[in-house]
Input
Amino acid sequence: MKPQDIIIWILFIISIIVAIWYLFGNSPTFEQAILVFILTILFTNNAKISEIKTKQESLERKFNALAKDFKEHIKHKQI
Output
């Protein structure tokens, strides 16, 4: 597991605890409970976006290498 996955799970558990705490009263305000959920969602989205960006950069490098190979192949075929 990556550190970001551990943080996401911790935030998710805290969100559940705050929601249950809110339901049983003597708790934080509704806005504070929602804030915990929003922070969890934002952190999760940020982690997923950074993972997608990394994969996209890798794919871009591979595509550029493939394009270079095709260009070299066309040059050799013409000669």
About this structure: The first helix runs from residue 3 to 23. The helical segments are 3-23, 30-78. The mean pLDDT is 87.
